[in-house]
Design brief:
The protein is α/β, with parallel strands linked by helices and 386 residues long. The protein is built from eleven helices and 16 strands. The mean pLDDT is 97.
Amino acid sequence: MLKQAHAISEELIEWRRDFHMHPEIGFELHRTAKIVAEELEKMGYRVRRGVGKSGVVAEIGEGGKVVAIRADMDALPIFEQNEYEYASQIPGAMHACGHDAHTAMALGAALMLSKEKLPGRVRFLFQPCEETTDEDGKSGAQRMAEEGAMDGVDYVIAQHVDPAQPVGTIGISAGPCSGGVDNWYGVITGKGGHGAHPDQTVDPFHLLAHVILGLNGIVSRRINPFEPAVVSIGVVNGGFTENVIPDEVKISGTFRYANPELHEQLRVEIRRAFEIARAMGGDYELRFEYGGPPMVNDEGVAEVIGAVGRELLGAANVHEIGKTLGAEDFGEFLRLAPGAMFTLGTQKAGHEEYKLHHPKFDLDERALPIGAAMLTETVKRFLENG
């Protein structure tokens, strides 16, 4: 399979560089989705366009089990600082998270699988808007799932580039591999007045200080210490001049968790922290925006991916994934079918390492055929072995 994948390296690189030069953000993936759909139709796939606003769903084969491959297509609102010939041509947009490579490798897997006689069906989920959400707070995976993209799927797999690991390696682990996430938005209300007469006010900054202490104590004092969780403050806005105490202060942030059972507890504890404002004579408003569940890799699927990796790359080149509470909406698909995401080493040897979302991020394109081969062989293993 690696030999077949290396034979299409030029196509993989061409696709990846084209997507990299023309990044699109969120759900606005008109060019990217059009190219993906057209390429898949040329390969003989049955293609649905506009799934989840701008996603592409493609299937090939008949009967049997259905194995899905997910590839996210969206870029980030970042000004690229690289000067490669394939650098972004769209100011303020950049593929700084490797989704251009994910899309290219999935197309490569689609090309190879289109030439196989499959004892079942493979379905490709080319997804928009993994990096953010729409006006209703829903991501691309949520929108695609709502429109039936996962209907009938028996297994679902995905991969993500990893610039910290060398080319020729993969990472795979069972269990929680990224965090569930909610964002929260609060307004703390007091009674404004002159800065010289704080006794005649209910200072919202004073209230805020105590609420912040409450928020920062949630994980250390209210959550089981063996359960990974984070409550972070990202924004504080209030006031308009030096000598006036305002009526209100706005504060917002995020919380992350690995155990789905913590989701509601964290909401309760954040509300409890805001109640301090009322106890001190003020008031508050608080709302939550659901971001998605944890990404929990199925043990059986992870075992198959690991076995494929050891056979294709050697046991020494298969490692466990480092745990993170960073968010990944692939967890939405894992709620609907057993599956797993593995990481693909893409480190550029001899170059300074830039992490995901950095304006100088890039990857070693020698990894592209490896990722395509991993996807293809894993799908075949599931379909052939049931």
